[in-house]
Amino acid sequence: QVQLVESGGGLVQPGGSLRLSCAASGFTFSLSAMSWYHQAPGKERELVAYISPSGTNTNYAASVKGRFTISRDNAKNTVYLQMNSLKPEDTAVYYCKVYRRDYWGQGTQVTVSS
Q: pLDDT, tens digit, for every residue of 27-37?
């Protein structure tokens, strides 16, 4: 009964911001490293951000470093991705994933276009 539900996607103009959320259930969230991936049209799914169970350690793909911030609230079983200074090349479906397990959400669409 593992479940990951992403939300917060939408259409934004270049330079805009969005905050994605992933609500998790069915596993011990506070002991699980979490991650965000995206998949753009015609491209492979790519890891964009990682966060350790406590939230102390994070890592980012070079393409989003300095613009995106991953965070988590273990009391709410939720992981977030704050996306700033969005670019058209950020357009993709964004998925959350339990880092070391094959547990995926259904994804949320982010479209950056003028």
A: 999 999 999 99
